[in-house]
Amino acid sequence: MSGVMIKTGIYGLVRTLTVLGMPPLWWGYLLLAIGIISGVLGVLFALAQHDLKRLLAYHSVENIGIILIGIGVGMIGWSSGMPIVAALGFAGGLLHVINHALFKGLLFLGAGSVFHSTHNLDIDHLGGLIKKMPYTGLFFLIGAVAISGLPPLNGFVSEFVIYIASFSGAMSMNANSSLALIGAIAGLALIGGLAAACFTKAFGIAFLGEPRSKDAENDHESSPWMTVPMMILAAACIVIGLLGAAIILFISPVIGVVLGNPYSGEIQIASNYLLYVTIGSIAFIILLLAIAGLRNFLLSRNSVGTSGTWDCGYAAPTARMQYTASSFAQPIIDLFGFFIRTKKKINIPDSYFPSVSNFETHTPDIGREMIYKPMFKTIETFFGRIQIMQEGRIHIYVLYVVVTLLILLFWNVR
Amino acid sequence: MDSPIEIMMILLVLSDMALLGLSRVRTCISIVSFQGMLLGGLALVTQFGSLTPRLIMIAAASFIIKGFVFPILLRRGIREAGTQNEMEPFVGYIMSVIAGVAMLGVSLWLGTKLPVFTVGSGTSLIIPAALTTLFTGLFLIIARKNALNQCLGYIIMENGIYTFGIVSVVEIPLLVELGILLDVFVAVFVMGIAIYHINREFDSLDSDRLNVLKG
Amino acid sequence: MEITSLINIILGLLLAPLLLGIINKTKASFAGRTGQPLLQAYYDIIKQLQKGAVYSKTTSWIFRAGPVVGLSAMLVALAIVPLGGVAAPLAFSGDLLLLAYILGTMRFFTVIAALDTGSSFEGIGASREVLYSALAEPAFLIGLAAIARETGIMSLSQMLPLSHFFSPEVVLVVVALFVVFLCENARIPFDDPNTHLELTMIHEVMVLDHSGPDFALILYSSALKLWVLGLVIVGLIFPTPPGSFWLVPVFTAICGLILLAIIVGIIESTMARLRLIRIPQLLVAAGSLSVLAFILVLR
């Protein structure tokens, strides 16, 4: 659902554009601004969540933001007559639609697998899942790396195309558009960095370390019915990541429908650049295997032991002393506190020795609290007042009809 | 390669950004005195072809007053009040710097719209720099709680007006220039005295607390 | 791929740990000590490679993968950055994006390897690391976008030799990129590479539990990171007149890197680490310097 349904808005936008033709320039700016705001706010709210599924849902907001940035950049290029910005902006945005469906679907399946085995989606109560759920962990990791837009996977390919569009535009367009495109670049960079923060938190705290509660200790790997679909989606992420150069050529006819011109020349240029990205990615993977082999060879000649994690000499470390998800996200949440407004409830021990204390955070949804709730409340009060008219008696309703007819009659004959 | 005016304007804008982002009041005072000296030099550079003794006198006067007299007065104010680093300002430092960049953008746009005659070469940056300095001064007055920072904001605002004046008027009448300078000098002097009294009365320079005077 | 590009890569592989030695020697001479030998980093790496390792029972294969991913990413980055006037082997339009993001991959895996140990120390370092790198990315990319607009080229290998150092825009970009350089390499004023205390835990603490060959890989990757990011800055400062014999700009660039290492050593000896609240402010200031440089290029 998250893969397809939330894209219906984007589909509507793009279809409308196809029908309307070339838009005025300020539409591109507006869409770009909305994209940047959605992207940054989405990932910030995702960082503040404890529940794995809510985190993923807020993260979809961020990815829609990236798609809107791509489409906004494309529209700016279209209205200004810069073919490479137009073609690549739309291509990147549309490719990200596909990529997002893939990796978000993968991540939600992973979350479902986690829930199935531990019956608990609160990240702060999970931990160490990767030991008993290796496949879920591996595929979730691939989804996490992909959604952070890191090479060699597919998230990087679509972000790369949008970046190329923005850079090309920023290098040669006039002042206003260049500054808008610099805003796009800064927005994408910030969103990418914060997304990496969010998913290191989600993957690291949930799957790594020691189990933080009984639920996490009782986990088990899910059945192949759950893991095989994840494997298919993960494989698709890897394939698109490595073959980006070829995939982007498929977008060309779509661009033809939307913009009226397939811009195959510009898409070919992007494909050439992506070819280098592929070479880099393949080099990276080969180096990875080579160095891992070298390291294992070196280790095989010496002793390899195991022990507990270094704990600075503390006498009784427990699993609950590990870093929690809210601690991990705390520097970022405090920095952006103006936008997120997390409410904290803290119960500090007030004696000299450790006693019972607790700490609770809750992040209200800023869109719901500040925009939708007041709006609906005002509408409700307004209609409450009009409700006086609804007497419920037929006589009064007939009176309304007669009075309206009389007014219309007198209005006409004056 | 670039004309010296352009480099001075870039230094002016950089000093504005620094003033928005720094919290230590002593450093801010040093930066404002640097701005004053920079602008004294600017008066000389723009009229390089026609240096008259009158012009040198004006430039020297503003150089000395803005570069040395104001900082001495303000540092005396700090000494009387005890060192006051900035308490939490209304707008955080990061947001101030981002607002500074936004103000620079707005000034650049305004600069293209205003039909002002510019003097000298490489001056396409003077009007935006002057407007940025003006806005920075106003921003500091609005967004900072410490009365000393607000005084600095006033001086910065005057710097901005001065730069704007250099650009648009080819020959500043001596009387007008001295008048402006005297005006600012008296204002800072009075502000210094006021700061001393505010501190003595309320034991703090938080100008937000003046609202206890409300009826 | 020319033979000169290959020679540049080999130079990078051989000389990178020397930069660490130069920084330490500078700090020692400021403190009046003799300090470690210049080649100490090499001795450390070789010593660690010959040792066995101890792994924590809490960790999984991610912990073992972290250093390997880090070194692979740095080697790919080494292939992207030009040395002197010679184009890098993996040069293409938009390679600066691959550089920034492959460093991101390295960071991602370092962070999850740190979280894998289940220790609070690594958690502290990891959470600070992700925030500061998220703020440093925009400064890096916008600075390079300003240079791209000025030279009209999107590839590092052609962009850097063409930039003129004596225009104010490039000076601003160099300052911004230098701040990002200090942040990414965990130097003062962002992080103290000497200590492992809570006060200064960002990079040093994330690798606390690694030992043996893993630790050698990490030491070598950090030396390579100094080399790679330093080359971007040095490339901006020393332009390459076209048609000069390749050895001269390469030699200039290496001298520039040594000078950069000495400057880093001087900064480490004279400044203290910033309070953690101030670090985002410094990074945002670097970002605004980049934006200012771009606005200046627009005229």
Shape type of chain B: globular
Distinct helical segment count of chain C: 11
Proportion in helices of chain C: 55-70%
Q: What structural class do helix, strand and pairing data of chain B support?
A: mainly alpha
Average of per-residue pLDDT values of chain C = 84
Low-confidence stretches of chain B: none
Number of helices of chain B: 7
Residue-averaged pLDDT of chain B, rounded?
A: 76
- Alpha carbon gyration radius of chain C: 19 Å
Total domain count of chain B: 1
The N- and C-terminal alpha carbons of chain B lie at a distance of 60 Å
Please tell me what the overall shape of chain C is. globular
Poorly predicted runs of chain C: none
Largest protein interface?
A-C, 80 and 82 residues
Quaternary structure type: heterotrimer
Sketch the topology of chain B as an H/E string, one letter per element: HHHHHHH
Portion in beta strands of chain C: under 5%
Q: Please write the string of helix (H) and strand (E) elements of chain C.
A: HHEHHHHHHHHH
What does this molecule look like?
Chain A is mainly alpha-helical and 414 residues long. Chain A has two domains: 5-293, no CATH class; 366-413. In chain A, 73% of the residues lie in helices and 3% in strands. Chain A has helices at 8-20, 25-47, 52-80, 83-118, 129-132, 134-147, 154-172, 175-207, 214-217, 224-242, 244-259, 264-300, 325-335, 337-340, 366-386, 394-413; strands at residues 304-307, 343-347, 358-362. Chain A has a two-stranded antiparallel sheet with strand order 2-3. Chain A is globular, with a radius of gyration of 27 Å. Chain B has 215 residues and is an all-alpha fold. Chain B has one domain (4-213). Chain B contains seven helices and no strands. In chain B, helix 1 (4-21) runs antiparallel to helix 2 (25-46) and helix 1 packs parallel to helix 5 (126-143). Chain B is globular, with a radius of gyration of 18 Å. The longest helix of chain C is centred in the middle third of the chain and has 32 residues, at 120-151. By secondary structure, chain C is mainly alpha-helical. Chain C has one domain. The model of chain C has no long low-confidence stretch (mean pLDDT 84). Chain C is built from eleven helices and one strand. Chain C has helices at residues 3-31, 40-49, 61-78, 95-116, 120-151, 156-162, 168-184, 203-206, 213-237, 247-270, 278-298, and one strand at residues 53-56. The chains are: A mainly alpha (414), B mainly alpha (215), C mainly alpha (299). Chains in contact: A-B, A-C, B-C. At the A-C interface, helix 6, helix 7, helix 8, helix 12 and strand 1 of A face strand 1, helix 3, helix 4, helix 5 and helix 9 of C.
